[in-house]
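Collaboration report, partner site 2.

Our partner group contributed sequences for two proteins of shared interest, and the home lab folded both. The records are reproduced in the order in which they were received, starting with the first partner submission.
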Amino acid sequence: MSDFEIVTRTDFSDVTYLLEIRHPQMAKAAKPGQFVIVMEHEQGERIPLTIADFDRAKGTITLVIQAVGKTTREMQQNCKVGTHLHALVGPMGIPSHIGDAKKVVCVGGGLGVAPIYPQARAYKESGAYVIGVVGFRNKELMFWEDKFRACCDEFIVCTDDGSAGIKGLVTEGIKQSIAKHSDIDEVVAIGPPIMMKGCAEATRAHGIKTMVSLNPVMVDGTGMCGGCRVKIGEQVKFACVDGPDFDGHLVDFDDLMARLGRYKPTEKNALEAWKDSCRLRGTTADTIPPAHSH
């Protein structure tokens, strides 16, 4: 039995859930921007997940996961307080360079909201003026508002339907920030590729340095498989060892999105096969544990 015990589980919505895992060494070593590779059980898939938070005093790391594919749905069903993960490797990737920026906009969209939090906190701790911009589809999907407000000097919420904050995409929050502040040193954006591409375009004309965190398919996390290669300007990089942070103005987002799209049929087949096996076992793949926190 591994000792990667799940000590907290919180369900933010029917698809988004938080796992806090006891791993004192990793909590001690983790830095903003890094990720882990998780295996839920011995035959499980290796999946990369960005570290959403770490608590050195408690000896825990926090992951916020969206149940979209077979493995993340399986984890949603099985990972409860007191259960253990089979394997947890990390922290991996190059930590985000916090540097000495005086004014920073930290942007998170959807699931990117969780991993942008340690970045915002680190910038605040370095003495920067931090503007947080987060985007959700609607108010019901919002989480961690209090955590962000505690480390952001300004905090802008954007929702697709206008049920909270301003109506629109996170790019609206970026535009508002640029209009209000002429001295922004850097924008950091984490979220789906299409969102990060929009953020990079929103800052390009203003010449504001924009860093993004890329999420291509990874297998081993050591640069050996080449599955996570991305085009950055004229160069090919491997997100797992050269990233995951890159200059958003140099990223070939269209190539990244095309590569991600190639795996969709395989992912769909794996999910359908898992649903079938659930039916055979007499469980339902759509059984969601009740929302709760510990």
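Second partner submission, folded after the first:
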Amino acid sequence: MRKSIYSCIAALVVVSGANADVKVGNPMAMTGPIPDLVAPMALAVDLAEKHINEQGGMFASGEEYVIVRADSMCDPVAGVDAVTKLINVSGVVGIVGPVCSGGTIAQAESVSIPAGVVTLSVSASAPAISNMETGTDLVFRTAASDAYQGVALAELALAKGITDMSVSYANDDYNAGLAAVFAEHYAANGGKIHLNEAHEPNKASYRSEVATLGANTENLALFAYYGSGGITLMRNAMETGAFSTFLGADGMLAQEVIDQLGAENLTNATFTTSTSDESTPGYAAWSALAAAADLNPLGPFVPNSYDAAFMMALAIEKAGSANRDLIAGALRAIGNGSGEVILPGEWAKAKKIIAAGGDINYNGGSGPQDFDANGDVAGDFSASVVKDGVWVGKIIK
């Protein structure tokens, strides 16, 4: 597909404008099914923007690094609309986001890839993203694929002695993909799955689904967004006593789950998410910055969001101009390179090295950002349980 005339014009304006702001699009799901999860992620993106501009901005001329936010609503249609406006109207040179896999896939296939614009997602983790580009090298992510998280969750279930389960997943790219990986690995390693069924989001009641799923087991693997059916399904299961144990992933990892269902009812609930290795220098630097900004450094995808915004700026700086065509190669150079290590917040240091013709290697709060051929990174995962009324995670080794 050819780039639209609007995206070409926007690209020319951004590249050629003297002392113009360097604008990067940030389609975040500020509304929709997971706003409580996304709010601190957006603050982390803003924090990266703040650090960059406080330390001299972009290039020798000190241009402002500007995050242009749009609401992708964790919805494919809204994601396409948001990114279309960011590229064709706002004239952004890159995309940091979206949050959800469905929106990421939809906008990349129909908007950002045809326009030649790099997408660096902060949290989209569906396995299908890895092979969607057909060689364009325009989609990257700072969060590990659920091809890894599904395996980690299955191994956690087996380690807990859970030998049989039913699986319920919301009918969307993220939850369906994660459930498929989980179920395959769980069954291949001796676990018995009684039922593995999709459920439609946003239903008023899931009592019939719960009754069917719980006919032969007390254990449920639930893959859903908390705000579009996950809480309701768990509430129905608790009301009927269908399940005693719940496992799942980051779509359910929100304080609202505890607030609505009660901490006393979640003693046997465990949810996994991407996390950071707290022993690394990158995490130590990030943790200090997050604490100063009153952010939870281990919040789901919060460090990944900071890293994505910071890395996009580093890539543009490395490219030497806000030229969309140079960003993908520069992103690999600063993520996979063997140059001097740059930690979160070290913008002035990185800028000085790049200006002198040197190479850098960014190590972020979410871990090393070494992209493979598909634009994916490896990652660590944590398992969170409720303690003292909040989710507390522990890294899974």
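Feedback sent to the partner group on the second submission included the following. Residues 105 and 258 are 31 Å apart (CA to CA). The chain is about 40% helix and 20% strand.
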